[in-house]
Specification:
This protein is α/β, with parallel strands linked by helices and 203 residues long. The chain has a single domain, classed as 3-Layer(aba) Sandwich (Rossmann fold), CATH 3.40.50. 35% of the residues lie in helices and 21% in strands. It is globular, with a radius of gyration of 16 Å. The two termini are 21 Å apart.
């Protein structure tokens, strides 16, 4: 997929205020500091499109970007930042859950995982919650450039084995790096294929 244009549209904290349209939405979510903004900028080839905060867990907004005037990329707030207050964590939970469960325009959800770490309970629990609510998703491992290939593949395999303890089959998995653009073509090709299938279905 060739990204010809990528433009910011709107930010809000309520899925009901999201843009009204008939285009597919691809949402990205992950723990705070997982490298989500850097990944979005890499995918769209637009430095600074998604702002990288110097304070992890600061963003409490749903951000919409229109890509090629054909589909929306949605930057969801990061989850699981321990230094938030109880009230703020609850507010964040509602923003995320309302969008994921109620936003009918959401075509696919990408869950970002930091490839440098062993399986994190908060990530496993979030993906299990998605499964319980029949929300299809893909896993995007980030920061692949930070590890040697052997360690990278071992960490990813640990995640696979952990998930297979409760999942019959694994979702699509992508390995990415915002630094060397690893995985860019694969993620965009996946989005392009889903878009084509939607056109066929709606024809």
């Amino acid at each position: 997929m060739n990204i010809k244009s990528a433009e910011f549209v709107i930010s809000n904290t309520d899925y009901k205020s999201c843009p009204q349209h008939d285009k597919p939405e691809y949402a990205f979510i992950g723990r705070s500091n997982v490298g989500k903004s850097s990944l979005i900028n890499m995918l769209t080839n637009r430095k600074g499109l998604a702002m990288t905060s110097s304070t992890p867990g600061k963003t409490l907004l749903i951000n919409h970007f229109i890509i090629n005037d054909e589909w929306y990329l949605v930057d969801l707030p990061g989850y699981g930042y321990a230094r938030r207050g109880k009230d703020e964590r609850e507010k964040l939970r509602i923003i995320i859950e309302d969008y994921v469960l109620e936003r009918t325009e959401m075509t696919a959800l990408f869950v970002l995982i930091d490839s440098r770490h062993q399986p994190q309970q908060i990530d496993i629990e979030f993906m299990e919650w998605l499964g319980e609510n029949n929300i299809p998703f893909s896993i995007v491992f980030t920061k692949a450039d930070k590890l040697k290939t052997g360690k990278l593949l071992m960490n990813i395999d640990h995640y696979k084995q952990k998930m297979l303890e409760s999942w019959e089959e694994l979702p699509p998995i992508f390995i990415t790096s915002a630094e060397d653009q690893r995985g860019r073509e694969e993620v965009l090709a996946y989005i392009e294929e889903v878009n084509k299938q939607l056109l066929i279905t709606n024809y």
